[in-house]
Amino acid sequence: MEWCVSMPKVELHAHLNGSIRDSTLLELAKGLGDKGLIDFSQVEHVILKNDRSLAEVFKLFDVIHILTTDHATVTRITKEVVEDFASENVVYVELRTTPKKNDSKGMSKHSYIEAVLEGLRAVSSVDVDFIPNSEELKHLSNPLLSTTNDKCNENTRKKIFVRLLLSIDRRETTEAAMETVMLALEMRHFGVAGIDLSGNPAVGEWVTYLPALKFAREQGLSVTLHCGEVPNSREIHDMLDFLPERIGHACFFEEDHWRKLKSSKIPVELCLTSNIRTLSVPSIDAHHFVDLYNSKHPVVLCTDDSGVFSTSVSNEYKIAASSFGLGRKETFELSKNAVEFIFADNTVKEDLRNIFSSAAKNLE
Ligand code: 5GP
Predict the structure, then answer these.
(1) Domain encompassing residue 296
(2) Residue 158, Cβ neighbours under 10 Å: how many?
(3) How many domains does the chain fold into?
């Protein structure tokens, strides 16, 4: 495990509100409990429950959102989540989150994302690079863009790249999905790199989100889709035909879907612990990682919801290494290859390739 922790890693499928520390959730629940706003003992039971079906996971998210959807808390959890990833040597993370409106807290989708950005600026244990570095952006004179949160000498500080993906929740309407895409475009200069489609897969229809996803693509945003989390053959075909830049999960694929996926070379974000804990895959031995890895299909290991599923990126690599017999070299290569599937620009890719090359020397 130690070696999986020290190796540089890239995290491409992490939901902000699923990555919260249990201790923070309990503290927030206790605070609301003390004010008589919730029944703490009931919420504590829900938070600490270990095995959850996919349907139960979405019930838990409803509870989490009650606890977290105010500006200060969104800022706090963003800071903590990024610090937690950096502490296990994640060098690049794409953090995805659903912009939320909460009228009782004066929160709009826009101010929600502002609170997330505030969290990135508040990180103190590591330097956070979240502003795109293209020549075009360098010419902008907005003072907020001038730096990241570099507080010390660059050479002596650890650094993590963070990019944001804005999630469309499957409960949303076409208009609400479009609003999220417009917000992503507006926030591009602050590190929003793409759009994710997530939320309860038992809810909603592909055609509802398609106009917003098409628009996102036309505007040059990258798109990743939760795909095949439940059996839904038609939708899986439609999603693959859309040719997203990446997909997540791919648990309930049939022969035709695998064929289409493999010929398209769409990279797959695989979340081993999440899939096992939600019973989306019967056992680790039966996980589709094996087939995709053996056929050299692009895959990246991710946590999904490190808080909800009590895992970490290092743990996912450790599970892959021990369950599928990968040696150190193969495990390192798996981690390194993820760089090629990130949504950030080529300068970031190049920086990450250099980080992995330096780390590879320690392997020899
Ligand atoms: P948030 O977007 O609020 O930061 O993160 C939590 C949300 O991410 C959930 O409410 C849900 O919409 C989405 N999410 C988290 N984990 C999963 C998952 O395993 N599958 C799907 N489809 N959505 C998820």
Answers:
(1) 2-363
(2) 11
(3) 1
Of 12, 15, 274, the one to substitute when testing ligand 1's pocket (max ligand atoms within 8 A of C-beta) is: 15
CA of 167 to the centre of ligand 1 (A): 8
Query: Does the pLDDT of residue 143 top 60, yes or no?
Result: no
Interface predicted TM-score (ipTM): 0.99
Q: Are 331 and 360 in contact (CB under 8 A)?
A: no
- The CB of 179 under 6 Å from ligand 1? The reply is no
- pLDDT digit string, tens, across residues 150-179: 454 555 689 999 999 999 999 999 999 999
Where do the DSSP E strands lie in 117-219? Answer: 127-129, 159-169, 192-198
Under DSSP, is residue 255 helix (H, G, I), strand (E, B) or coil? helix
Query: What is the domain-level CATH number for residue 178?
Result: 3.20.20.140
User: 318 is written with which tokens?
Assistant: 């450790």
The residues assigned a catalytic role are: 229
Sign of CA dihedral 304, 335, 352, 313: positive
State the pLDDT at residue 155.
58
As a whole-number percent, the residues of the chain with pLDDT over 70 amount to: 93
